[in-house]
Amino acid sequence: MLNFQYYMPTRMIFGPDTLDQLGDTPHLPKGSKAMIVIGESGIMLTLGYLSRVQGLLSKQGVQTIVYDRIRPNPESDFVDEAAAICKENDVDYVVGLGGGSTIDSAKSIATMATNLGKYWDYMQSGTGGGQTPEHDALPIVAIPTTAGTGTEADPWTVITKSGSESNEKIGWGNDSTFPYLSIVDPKLMLSVPPKQTAYTGMDAFFHATEAYLATCRQPASDMLALEAVHLIAHTLPEAVADGDNLEARTVMAWACSAAGLCESYSSCISQHSLEHALSAFHPKLPHGAGLVLISRAYFGFLAAKGEERLGDLALAMGDTLQENLEEEVSGVAFLDALDKLITDVGLADEKLSDYGVKFDEIPALAENALTTMGALFEITPVDMTIEDVIAIFEAAYE
User: Does this model's pTM top 0.85?
Assistant: First the structure.
């Protein structure tokens, strides 16, 4: 029996050159002062994206201040620091300009700009305080420059606890952390290097894959997940091979946003719990790379448990319709298609040890996955014990 909720409050403006609409759209949040959140690398300045956004907002009478200390795996102390600056300057809304880490940070900053205490007071697992924010977040404008996390289309934000000996990287969100407005301009993604294109594209792929398998799925998430899986399997290798291919970048941008919508209508499952543990222990590990490195072992476990929906995903990745097949497509076909995609985007030779992961860390990684992101195990389609998680990590490592 179908039983679900459907909620999507984000207005999305999508397509090449849509960033220009920031200068005259009537759909900006109310207010005359915004904080623009960017990464610490300075790439938004180098590419001229920051000055463009500031100029376009200025045309609408919006003054801007910039917070530029966000790292690839963003930390809670920087969220609290930026939120305090918002309060001091009476900021009306927050603009996230950049990749998933930057837009995630913008959501968390917007939350703490209207609430008391520290960001970690509101985390619901690990050493989080388990509190509920009293006030809604400030409105959020998302302007992604990568096709990966889909955070422009969902309420979720993933932050690592600063200075945490427990290596906690936890996802959180509520209705007020959906972006008020998202502008998805694929031309902003033309500058992304091949390796980062592969990492972010595979992140979007696994968002869609996991959303299709999650037990909380619904019709809208199923449709979008299969769409995203099909598009990424056929287009990501092109985008990696030729970053100037605007058509491939546009398809990938939509596939990423579709995968983000999946996270709103359905959810990721425990593959993300395992990866969050990896990149919490090893912050230099790109999230997409971590997902790739555990994927063969993880989905091999699901296939061995008889997860039938993997066959649907295999069909979505290929060019053959099921009615033309004499035999049912199995999870093994998905694993073969996954191997091919990973090879085609140039990630087949990477290893966990390349990022400093050690075999003797695996029990701690497994415990961390179950402790900090345990909720995702509850909506994973097969039961998993800590021994199962350890075995998956060991198989991935080997």
Answer: yes
